[in-house]
């Protein structure tokens, strides 16, 4: 299966479908690495390692794509943004965002956004088992509500076999999301790039694809150095 996936990646590469090709390379290489670890035959191990070293797209372990989300643009729900990077091998996710906080009057919807992000992970093709969240405490009077909200999400995820590890930092500024298949997504505004809905019964309140966005930039990287593996 790994060899076939790598073969498909080469075909996509030749067709200049580079982003799809990169996803296939990563999945195929991870499958082959699993076989290498389980194989005791040294000749077979050598062949598999040769196959793994073939893709040139990973030679320097670097990839970068940038998406510009314009002011009031729609069609940028979490599924749209993250789905193609959430391959079946993804089991662990890291979220660093200083503003995952409680929802209060005239506040941003960061806790709900994080909940929506977690729902996407559960519905996706990946088999996520652990989510690590690094955020900061609510600086106002909503700290206890922030903690209770995160604990409620934590308990709900536990019902789906997913562990949520929560850490707080007073010095965190960067916003990034990492998957253990090597993909890293940096969003200028973090998960909170959606505008406040016009009302509880307005279009876009439930479906984030229909929700207008704030202007922001999304940078997507691939940082896994396969040669070191």
TrEMBL record:
Domain (MITD1 C-terminal phospholipase D-like): residue spans on this chain: 75-222
An individual GO BP term: midbody abscission
All copies of domain MIT, residue ranges: 2-54
Signal sequence extent: none
One of the Pfam families matching this protein, by short name: MIT
Source organism, top-level taxon: Eukaryota
Matches recorded under InterPro entries: MIT_dom, MIT_dom_sf, MIT_domain_contain_protein1, MITD1_C, MITD1_C_sf
One GO CC annotation: midbody
Protein name: MITD1 protein
Organism: Onychorhynchus coronatus
The encoding gene: Mitd1
